[in-house]
TrEMBL record, chain A:
Residues 1-23 form the signal peptide. The keyword Signal applies. This is Sugar ABC transporter substrate-binding protein. It comes from Actinophytocola xanthii. The keyword DNA-binding does not apply.
Length: 429, 332
C-alpha cells in the first residue's frame, strides 16, 4: 500500500465529468444481474479479433451466450494506448476488455491493481511459453494482467511481379536463399535498384531496423531492467545498416502506418516489407487489389519476432466476471487458429503450431505461401526479447529518427537526438 | 460592486419604512432585512453558476495541474505520484531544447497563420460590406470553413500536402525537380499547418469584422468623400480606426488560439509518438505537452509544460493588447 492515496483520488475527481461521459459512451453498465443482458466492450487498435467487415468470432460467442452482446471499438495504436492509460488513471471509462501491445505492456505492469489478475481465474498458463507469460506478469510472478493473443514471427513479404521486372528470382525458396543475413538483404536491394530505379526496395528504414533487432534478445533494456540502448552494439549495428540502406536510396521513406504508407502498398512503391504474421492482415486490408502479386520468404538471419498483443480486463469494469470468460475464450487455441486463418495473426500457443489446420495453412492472397510453416520456423529460434517500461516509446523514437535520415538529416545528428529523446522519456522526470 | 449596490439599495428601504399605520415594526425590520439580503445576495446567486462551473472545470484543474507539476508522477512507475521534486520540472524545462523548439514552432506557425488570416479577413469583410448580389449567401458562405470539423479539413489538407501523390506537388511539377516532402522541413511544414489554420478561421474573423463595419456611421464616409478621400483612404482612415476595438479583440483571441495550437499539427503528423514531424519540425508546445504527458507518461513534466504555457499566454496576450491599442495613436 502506498502511504497516501490523495492525489489519485483528486485525479479521479478531476476527471469525474469526462469519466461520466465516457461511461455513458461505453454502455454495458446496466447492472450486476448475472443472467441479465450484458454488453461487453472490447477496445482494440487493429485487427485483433475481427476485420472491419467480419466479426464472425464475436457472433459465434453471442450465439453461445444468449445474454452477452459484444461491442468492439477501434482506434489507432497511439490513441488506443493513451486512452487506456487515461481511463485507468481516472478509474472509469475503460472497456471491459482492452488489448495491449507487447511493446507497451511493460508500461502497465507497474499498475497491477488496475487489472484483473488472471492467476486467480483458472487459466492454464502452461499453454504459452514461460517468457510470453512473464512479459505480462509482475516481477514476483504473482499477477498476470493479460492473456497472450498472437505473436509476431518475422518473414519478408515481397512483390513477385516487381522482382521479376528487376530480374530477380521469384520462387520463395530461391528468394529466401538470396539473403541469409541482413547485409545480404541490403546487397540484393542494390541489385534490385540497378534494374528497377523507380521502385524502392523497402517501405521505411524503421521497419528494416525493427526487423534486424527482432533477432536480438537484449535491445533497449538488459535483464536487470537497466536502459542499455546507447551502449548496446547490436542496436548500433542495426542502426548503421538501416542508415546504409537509406543512403543507398533503397527506402520509400513512408512513415509506418500513415495514409501514405497505405497508398504505397496499393501503388507498389516498394518491393519488400518486413512482415510479421499480423502484417499479412494489413496488406490484405490495405491493398486488396494486389492479391496474388505477393509472396512470403524467410527473414534474413532466419528468425525474429515483432509485436503481438495481450488481452486484459481492467478491474474497474462492472462485468469483470463475464469479461474474463470472454477473454479466456478469445485467447483459447481454437479461436487463435480461426483468427490465424481469418486475419493472419499467428497463435501464441506453441501446441497449435503442429496442428494440421495451422501447419498446412497456405495463404491464397500471398500466392499460396505456406504461412503455417514459415512463421513457426521464424519463431523457433527467435530469442525471448527483453522489454522495459518505455520499449514502445523507444521503438517509435528510432522509427522517427530513421525517417528524419530519409528526409535528409545527418545520421549522426539523428542518432544523437534520438538518444537525448530516449533518455528524457525513460528518465525519472 | 457590492458596496455600491448596498448604498443604492438601502435608502429606498429606509424611506419605505416611514409610512405609518402598517404592520408591526418587528415585522418591518424582518422584511427590510430580507430585502437587504435580496439586494446584497442575489447578484452572487446569479453569477454563482458561472463561478461554480469555473471552480470545478477551470480553477481546480489549474491548481491541481500546478500540484502535479511538482511531482515526478508517471503511471508507469508505481508510487511516483507522491514523489515531490519541487520546481525541478520547471528547471529542466528551461534547459529543454525540445521545449525551445516547440516554442519557436508555436510562435512561427502563429505568425505565419495569424497575420495573413486577419488581413485576409479584413479584406473579405470590406468586400462583403459593399452592396452585392446574393450578399447574405456570400456572407454565410465565408463561414463554411469554420463550421467544418478540423479533422475533416486535416484529411483534405493531408492529401493536398502529400509528398508522392499530393495535389500541390502535382501543380508544382513543372517548376521543381523533386516533389516537396512537406513534413521534412520546418518552413514547408509550417506553411502546411498555417494553411489549415488560416482556412479554418478566416471566415469567422471576417464575419466579426463585417459586423463591426456595419456599425460605422454612414455620415463618416459621406463627409470623407466630400473631402475628396478615395475608397482606399476611406478604408484606411475611417474603417480601420472605427474597427479598433474589434481588431484588438480578434488579435488577442487569435494569439491565444495560436499559442494553444494542437489539432492541426496533431492531425498533420504521421509519427506514431506525436513527435510533430520526424525531427519535431512542427511540434507545437501543446503537442509537446501531449507527447510528454500521454505518449511518454510523464505527468509531472507535462503539467509543468502546461503551466509554463499558461504564463506565456498571459504575458503574450497582454503585450499584444498593449501593442494593438496603439493602432489609432497616429489619428489622435
Amino acid at each position: 500500500m502506498r502511504t497516501s492515496r490523495r492525489p489519485a483520488r483528486a485525479m479521479a475527481a478531476l476527471t469525474a465529468a469526462s469519466a461520466l461521459v465516457l461511461a455513458a459512451c461505453g454502455s454495458g453498465e446496466e447492472g450486476a444481474d448475472p443472467n441479465g443482458e450484458i454488453t461487453l466492450t472490447v477496445n482494440v487498435f487493429g485487427d485483433s479479433f475481427s476485420l472491419p467487415d467480419n466479426r464472425s468470432l464475436y457472433d459465434e460467442y453471442e450465439r453461445q451466450h444468449d445474454n452477452i452482446k459484444i461491442v468492439e471499438n477501434r482506434s489507432d495504436f497511439g490513441t488506443h494506448h493513451q486512452n487506456l492509460q487515461a481511463r485507468l488513471t481516472a478509474g472509469s471509462g475503460a472497456a471491459d476488455l482492452e488489448v495491449i501491445e507487447v511493446g507497451q505492456i511493460s508500461g502497465y505492469i507497474g499498475q497491477p491493481d488496475k487489472f484483473v489478475n488472471f492467476r486467480d481465474q483458472n487459466v492454464d498458463t502452461g499453454q504459452w511459453t514461460e517468457s510470453t507469460v512473464q512479459r505480462a506478469s509482475t516481477v514476483d510472478g504473482n499477477t498476470l494482467i493479460g492473456l497472450p493473443t498472437d505473436i509476431g514471427g518475422l518473414a519478408i513479404c515481397y512483390r513477385k511481379d516487381l522482382f521479376a521486372a528487376a530480374g530477380l528470382p521469384t520462387e520463395r525458396d530461391e528468394v529466401s536463399a538470396l539473403w541469409s543475413t541482413w547485409e545480404d538483404y541490403v546487397a540484393v536491394g542494390d541489385r534490385f535498384l540497378s534494374k528497377s530505379p523507380k521502385v524502392k526496395w523497402f517501405d521505411a528504414g524503421g521497419h528494416v531496423f525493427t526487423g534486424i533487432i527482432g533477432n536480438e534478445e537484449e535491445t533497449y533494456y538488459n535483464a536487470e531492467g537497466d536502459l542499455v540502448v546507447e551502449e548496446n552494439q547490436a542496436v548500433r549495428d542495426a542502426w548503421d545498416l538501416s542508415v546504409q540502406a537509406i543512403e543507398k536510396g533503397q527506402s520509400a521513406a513512408l512513415a509506418e502506418f500513415s495514409p501514405e504508407w497505405n497508398t504505397g502498398f496499393q501503388k507498389g512503391q516498394f518491393a519488400t516489407v518486413t512482415c510479421p504474421a499480423w502484417m499479412m492482415g494489413y496488406i490484405q486490408a490495405n491493398a486488396a487489389d494486389t492479391k496474388g502479386k505477393w509472396d512470403i520468404a524467410k527473414i534474413p538471419g532466419g528468425s525474429g519476432n515483432w509485436g503481438g498483443s495481450y488481452l486484459t480486463v481492467p478491474s474497474q469494469g462492472a462485468n469483470t466476471e463475464a469479461a474474463v470468460e470472454l477473454a479466456k475464450w478469445l485467447t483459447a487455441p481454437e479461436q487463435n487458429i480461426k483468427l490465424f486463418k481469418m486475419i493472419g495473426n499467428f497463435p501464441s500457443q506453441t501446441s497449435t503450431w503442429t496442428e494440421p489446420e495451422v501447419a498446412d495453412y497456405t495463404s491464397e492472397f500471398f500466392s499460396n505461401a505456406p504461412a503455417g510453416k514459415i512463421f513457426p520456423e521464424s519463431l523457433e529460434n527467435a530469442p525471448v526479447q527483453i522489454y522495459g517500461p518505455e520499449s514502445g516509446v523507444i521503438g517509435n523514437t528510432f522509427a522517427g529518427a530513421l525517417n528524419s535520415v530519409e528526409q535528409g538529416t545527418d545520421p549522426d545528428e539523428a542518432w544523437e537526438s534520438a538518444m537525448n529523446d530516449i533518455k528524457a522519456a525513460a528518465g525519472e522526470g | 460592486m457590492t458596496a455600491d449596490l448596498d448604498h443604492r439599495g438601502a435608502p429606498p428601504g429606509q424611506t419605505r419604512r416611514r409610512p405609518p399605520g402598517q404592520a408591526s415594526p418587528h415585522r418591518q425590520a424582518w422584511r427590510s432585512r430580507l430585502y437587504r439580503l435580496d439586494v446584497k445576495g442575489s447578484p452572487y446567486l446569479y453569477i454563482f453558476p458561472f463561478f461554480g462551473l469555473f471552480a470545478v472545470f477551470g480553477l481546480f484543474p489549474l491548481i491541481y495541474t500546478a500540484v502535479i507539476s511538482t511531482t515526478s508522477w508517471s503511471p508507469r512507475r508505481p508510487g511516483s505520484e507522491d514523489t515531490s521534486v519541487g520546481l525541478e520540472n520547471y528547471q529542466n524545462l528551461l534547459g529543454d531544447e525540445n521545449f525551445h523548439n516547440a516554442l519557436l514552432n508555436t510562435f512561427g506557425i502563429g505568425l505565419v497563420s495569424t497575420v495573413p488570416q486577419l488581413l485576409l479577413a479584413l479584406g473579405i469583410a470590406h468586400l462583403l460590406n459593399y452592396k452585392l448580389r446574393g450578399r447574405l449567401f456570400l456572407r454565410m458562405g465565408v463561414l463554411v470553413p469554420y463550421i467544418t470539423s478540423v479533422a475533416a479539413v486535416a484529411l483534405i489538407f493531408n492529401q493536398m500536402f502529400a509528398r508522392d501523390f499530393g495535389l500541390l506537388n502535382w501543380f508544382l511539377q513543372p517548376f521543381i525537380e523533386n516533389p516537396i516532402d512537406w513534413r521534412a522541413e520546418k518552413w514547408s511544414s509550417w506553411l502546411a499547418v498555417s494553411a489549415m489554420v488560416t482556412w479554418h478561421w478566416t471566415g469567422y474573423n471576417a464575419l466579426i469584422y463585417l459586423a463591426a463595419m456595419q456599425t460605422v456611421p454612414y455620415e463618416l464616409y459621406e463627409s470623407a468623400s466630400i473631402d475628396g478621400a478615395s475608397k482606399w483612404q476611406q478604408f484606411w482612415h475611417v474603417t480601420i480606426p472605427s474597427l479598433r476595438p474589434t481588431i484588438i479583440f480578434t488579435v488577442v483571441v487569435s494569439t491565444i488560439g495560436a499559442l494553444q495550437l494542437f489539432a492541426e499539427p496533431f492531425l498533420f503528423d504521421t509519427t506514431r509518438n506525436n513527435n510533430g514531424g520526424s525531427e519535431r519540425q512542427f511540434q507545437t508546445v501543446v503537442l509537446y505537452l501531449y507527447q510528454q504527458f500521454w505518449t511518454n507518461g510523464r505527468y509531472g513534466y507535462g503539467a509543468a509544460i502546461a503551466w509554463t504555457l499558461f504564463l506565456v499566454t498571459v504575458v503574450v496576450a497582454l503585450a499584444n493588447f498593449l501593442l494593438v491599442r496603439r493602432i489609432r495613436s497616429a489619428e489622435d
